[in-house]
Amino acid sequence: MLIRTKRDWELPESAATPESVYINRRALMAGAGAIAGGLALGGAARAADAPVGAPAGAPVAAPARNPAYTLDRPVTPEAAATSYNNFYEFGTSKDVVTAAQKMPLRPWTLRIDGMVEKPLTLGVDDLLKAMPVEERLYRHRCVEAWAMAVPWMGFPLAKLVAFAKPLSSATYVELQTFGRDTYAAPGLRQPFYPWPYVEGLTMAEATNDLAFISTGLYGKPLQGQNGAPLRLTLPWKYGFKSVKSIVRISFTDKKPKTFWALLNADEYGFWANVNPAVPHPRWSQAHERLLGSNESVPTQIFNGYGAQVAGLYKGLEKEALFM
Ligand SMILES: Nc1nc2c(c(=O)[nH]1)N[C@H]1C(S)=C(S)[C@@H](COP(=O)(O)O)O[C@H]1N2
Ligand SMILES: [Mo]
């Protein structure tokens, strides 16, 4: 977001959006109708009981959709959400699919450490067996002013926090993407960036029901480009908080030094709650472009999730709604 000379948000939409996201508008609306009508995603193509460790992108048994999370807009076409991505470990363009899919997703371990009863490293499939997987429809709002609405599979971050048994003195959670010691993704050679990618939340944010760890998308295991096999999903915050391909969760009593805040805290701060009233220094945040249709819609405070999260910021509004 910082060192490229040609930024995609400075280009006309037609130049910024890859061909693959232009899809027939009628097909999009038909798809949305099918979802609203309660048809299972993937329909007949979905295998009834594929193993938990099924390959990325392959259909798996559908977990129940949590009816508490509904959308005010059509579901984004799958082809758009899985081909227009931000994942700087694989390059700064939106086209990271080929590079990201080279990353091996198994074996994959998660390290749980910091202020916990007992530090632990466990395999991702052992973690998944211990977590209650469900499906949720969530909006996603990138700080670059594009947005999508997708069906994630996964489990509440609160369940992972409980599993980790943090000490009562822990006040923050830090989540980290793989570094070169785990997988030498090409973007990690860029010395300008403060690798590894780290994000953080207060304990109150991390245990709010909206905070989610995604393991799948559109009824299939998550693919590399979307942050497989474990990816944070925080629908009320700008997308850069939703750290991908997590290898470590750490508990601390110090505010985490996050990747984008280390680069530019005024533009990409620790809180990063979606707020249409506070423009980015180089563009407005009042509207957002929907991936797939390219429709422009007004941005909502907390990305429309104020009822669930505004209470987290009582008395903190001045900083938590600025950046
Ligand atoms: N490790 C890592 N996580 C990341 C990023 C990244 O570059 N590296 N980009 C973030 C940004 S800016 C956004 S908008 C979302 C994009 O997720 P998507 O590609 O699945 O839509 O991932 C976030 N998580
Ligand atoms: Mo983003």
Automatic annotation (TrEMBL):
It comes from the Bacteria. One of its GO terms (molecular function) is molybdopterin cofactor binding. Signal peptide: none annotated. Its cofactor is Mo-molybdopterin. Binds 1 Mo-molybdopterin (Mo-MPT) cofactor per subunit. Predicted to be exported by the Tat system. The position of the signal peptide cleavage has not been experimentally proven. InterPro entries: MsrP, OxRdtase_Mopterin-bd_dom, OxRdtase_Mopterin-bd_sf, TAT_signal. It catalyses: L-methionyl-[protein] + a quinone + H2O = L-methionyl-(R)-S-oxide-[protein] + a quinol; L-methionyl-[protein] + a quinone + H2O = L-methionyl-(S)-S-oxide-[protein] + a quinol. Keywords: Metal-binding, Molybdenum, Oxidoreductase, Signal. Mo-molybdopterin binds at residues 85, 88-89, 142, 177, 226, 231, 242-244. Residues 106-260 form the Oxidoreductase molybdopterin-binding domain. Its EC number is 1.8.5.-. Pfam families: Oxidored_molyb (PF00174). One of its GO terms (biological process) is protein repair. Heterodimer of a catalytic subunit (MsrP) and a heme-binding subunit (MsrQ). Part of the MsrPQ system that repairs oxidized periplasmic proteins containing methionine sulfoxide residues (Met-O), using respiratory chain electrons. Thus protects these proteins from oxidative-stress damage caused by reactive species of oxygen and chlorine generated by the host defense mechanisms. MsrPQ is essential for the maintenance of envelope integrity under bleach stress, rescuing a wide series of structurally unrelated periplasmic proteins from methionine oxidation. Belongs to the MsrP family. This is Protein-methionine-sulfoxide reductase catalytic subunit MsrP. It comes from Nitrospirillum viridazoti CBAmc.
